[in-house]
Amino acid sequence: MENLNIALLLMIVGMATVFAILLIVIYLGKGLIALVNKYAPEEVAPAKQEANAPAAVPGNIMAAISAAVTVVTQGKGKVAKVEKL
To answer: Could you list the residue ranges that cross the membrane (predicted)?
Structure first.
């Protein structure tokens, strides 16, 4: 019975130690993230200036895209919009 009590005590101490170390790691990680975000914030890239009207897709390219979609979807799909990314 003595060995069982020692084993249970050792298990509880070990689990508490692991739990405490994990809490320390979590809060140190959060602190490091906050510190980095405060002193070295991510640079914001300026938004692209887009033209008012997007350039039209040439007819032969639109036909090729439509044909490819028709072949791949076996006639069930259709092209609604084509944009350059």
So the answer is: 6-28
**Residue pLDDT, tens place only, 23-33:** 999 999 999 99
Nearest CA-CA partner of 65 in 57, 74, 76, 53: 57
Euclidean distance between CA atoms 33 and 4, whole angstroms: 43
Q: Rounded to a whole number, what is the largest CA-CA distance in the chain? A: 87
In-domain check, residue 8? yes
Helices (H), 1-84: 2-39, 59-72
Enclosing domain of residue 26: 1-42
